[in-house]
Structure formats: structure tokens, C-alpha cells
Amino acid sequence: MARFLLVLFACVASVAAQSVMVRNSMMSGNAGQPQTAETTTTAMGPNGETISISIGITIISSSQGGSSETTMMGSPTMAVGMTHQVTVGGSAGLVYTPSSIEAAVGDMVQFNFMSANHTLTQATFPLPCVAMASGADSGFMPNANNTVNPPPSFMVQVTSMAPMWFYCRQKGHCGKGMTFSINPTAEKTQAEFMAMAIAQNGTASAPPAAVSAAAAASAPPAVASAAAAASAPPAVASAAPAAASAAAAPPAASSGLATVVAGTGTMNGDSCSCSCLCGVNAFPSNAGIGNFGGMG
What we know:
This protein is an alpha+beta fold. The strands form five sheets. A six-stranded mixed beta sheet has the order 4-3-12-8-5-6, with no helix packed on it. A four-stranded mixed beta sheet has the order 7-14-13-10, covered by helices on one side. Helix content is 25%, strand content 25%. Residues 4-38, 204-259 and 292-296 have low confidence and may be disordered.
């Protein structure tokens, strides 16, 4: 009997050891390399094309804070790294603090929701304020005046080094730049992501000058011409009749009046040496041109 019990104990110990080995293998991967349990989804690109995007995170837990129980949504799919803390909203305003993090595969990220009522919703880079299909979403986490203690929280594990993009889907918040990213790159930065969120969804805050410029650029040519004509200064309008009158006025030479300018000269007996300047009409038609000594 003692021998039988000894053999049974050895079998149980062997099975338990194998179970631990399998679990450690799942958590850390082969040869100590983390497994990336990475999933992908498809989304609409900026030109209407379908693109494949890595979700890159696994949801671990969610809590409404206070005395609420924490709901376990999943288990870590690999060895757990460091835990990053991100504050959502609160006294800092409509922001995530920090607005982006650099996280390694396996790292945990805990989002702590402060006032007033925000979400963490995964998006794509080209469309900052549109929820990504199959992406992570905390749902609304109310915390009026920061009265919930501990605050509502949402924890995820990073399973990919691909950049990931998030926003708050509370009405109007994304359009004011409430965005967040994990592992942004030099080509796709958090600043660009936030700027696109404001540009695409913050139209109410566009400066009037920009709106006026856009309206002017889009005005049809006929309207623009009419506006220019209406705004022409009176001096330009009155110049046309004056110019027309000047063009219609007859030349002074056609008045028919002879004009003679007093001349100078000296008498030498019966002859004189004199000169005078006569107008064209002082002579008959075609006469007197190139002559000296008058008409004789």
C-alpha cells in the first residue's frame, strides 16, 4: 500500500510540474521570447481603401471604481512587464496625462478616469474620432467632480509594438483634441493625430478669417466680378464719361479762327527784314506752308 501511494504521489507531482511548464511557456514564449497574441482588424483608409490594422492590446480588467468590483475581461497573454499609469480628464482638462507612452510588448497600461465622464476608445490614425472595428473601448466611466474613490479604471496589456491610437468619444471631446497614443512614430506622431482630430471634428472652433477665406475661394466667378464692379470707386466710374467727352471734342484747329502772333523786323528803305508766327488758319487751305516773305 505504501509503495502504491508513493507511485501515485510521483505521478501527481509529474503532472503538476508539466502544467507549470506549459503555463510558463505560454506566458514567456519559446526560448524566453514573448508571444504576441496579436490580432488584426480592417478599417477604411483615407482614400476609401480597406487596410489591415493591428489591434495590439488585450483588455485585462475594468472597474467603475469606488466599492464596485473589478471585472476581469481577460488574462495576460505573455510575461507581464511594467505598468504605465494614465490619467483621463480631471483637473488637467480634456486630455490624457501623459498624451502618449512608449510601451514594450507585455507592458500593462492602467487608465484612471477622473471627472467628468470619459472613454478610452481605439481609433485609426487617418480617422482619429471614429471607433475602430473590433478595437478596444472602455465604455463611459463617470466620475462626477472626482468623487469616486478609487476612480474608475481600465487596464490593457500591450501585445504589439505597432502604434495604437485612442480618443474620448464623449460628445465634443475628440474635436477638442482629447486623444492618446501608444508607441507613436516619427512618421505618425501624437501631435499629428491630435491635430487631425481637431481639424476633422473641431470645425465649430475654426477662426472666422479661415471660414471667410474658404467662402471667397469657392465663390463663383460671376459673383466675384459683380462684387468687384459694385465696389469700384466713383472716381473710376466718372473717369469714363470724361474720357468719352474728351475724345468727342473737336480739335482746336478746326475752329476757323485765324491766329497771328506779333512779329519783329527792321526797315531798310523799301524793304524790311521781319518775321511773324501765324496760325494755320491764317492762310488759305494748303497755302503758306514753307513760304518766306508772306503771300506776296
